[in-house]
Amino acid sequence: MPSDIKICSLYLSIFPKGRKLSRKRLIRRWIAEGFVREKQGLSVEDVAETCFNQLIERKIMRPVEHSSNGRVKSCQVHDMVLEYIISKAAEEDFITVVGSHWSMPTRSNKVRRLSLHNSDPRRTKSVDRMNMSHVRSLTVFGSMDKLQFKSLKTELVQVLDLEGCTGLRESHVKVSDICQMIQLKYLSLRRTDIKELPPKVSKLRNLETLDVRETGIEIVEGSTTTASDIGYFTGLRKLAIYMIHKSDEIFRDFLSSIQYLSGYSLQTLVIDDKSSEFLKTLDSMSSYPTDLRALELSGKLLKLPKWLNGLQELVKLTLSGTALRTDNLLLLRNLSSLFSLTFSISKNHDPEIAAILEKNKSGSGGEIFVPAGGFRKLKLLRIFVPLLPSLNFAKNATPQLEKLELRFKMLEGLHGLDELGMLHDVLLTVDTQANEMTKLRVDYLKKEKTPSSKYTLNVNKYHD
Predict the structure, then answer these.
(1) Which of 81, 148, 168, 312 could in theory staple to 172 by disulfide, Cβ–Cβ 3.0 to 4.6 A?
(2) What is the rounded CA–CA span in Å between residue 44 and residue 441?
(3) Same domain, 453 and 336
(4) Which residues have C-beta within 8 Å of that of residue 5, sequence separation ≥ 6?
């Protein structure tokens, strides 16, 4: 087994028996620990993805959930495989696991990576006796209530993963201690009971991943954590902003932080703005994140920020609640690296969704035209909308497109598929409550497909 694959497989011993493992969580931790590096023109993220896929192919992990684009979203390790991995990890003094389903003593009392599976009093006493002065990675499952980590040297810790832990606010481990972990690259407080980040969190200049989803942390006016603090995390690769409270000051600080981080490591930006008030301010940025590889905008947008056409490193673009109009496609068509493009509108957006759907039609003369000569590297196009206006592909449009996924309740037309020379997979997902005209159009598409057509056409049904 190649050394990087071997190390990544030993790393699985960190997680308890039967645990569902997130692909993103694993990959970001591998990167933070330095187990994967850039090679042969591939980014560190690409190398990590390759390692993850290798573990799936070798049956070390099995897929549990898939994303809508077919990629594995989460996986699981078979119990017998995990038992073997834990024994090998202990044998090589790779990790120290406390409270595991299998008791595996380590050869050394010097702990570099500690994973605490069970925090009952008997287990916590054994932790207190450990020499934790060399710990680089600390993962805790369960309760933080009785833990103290007396000999832990905070300035050496690079990975701190407390996802799902209870009792963090009342624990002996002070949240303020995290600010002393100046080498920290990965910090997850997801699904903990923390209410706010400590004021000195901006000292974590090496941070690559900060996950505070599903917590009580809020950035509103008067909070000790401000939107401008985010700009200090110059090592961040991904920034995701959800549920933005309307405030000119917060909007201004967020824009400033995005612009500042764009000059460092930021590669992925996610903005989920149900009010869409913040999204409307994006065009006011004096500079924009030119090095982004992935961008996701969710909210009511009729027109896209004009600077989107300057993101020449962008590989993946997801637009949720954005009007699917010809002018928006014209804006995006010259993105030279774009591999995946998704437009989606769901009935869960809000009552104004009807207005956006109507704009889809009226803004494009009732039809959507994918222009010729653009989207040179696009391989995956997904459009998930209740009402899909007539979609037309011009000759020489999307010359590299391999997969087209359409999900709808009403379809007004689909034309030009035979013009797409590299297309090999078309998936139509139709609402079970679709009207008769839509069903007839789908049946016609099946019959229209000629034996010379290179693509396969699959039709599925869903109930919304």
Answers:
(1) 148
(2) 45
(3) yes
(4) 51, 54, 55, 58
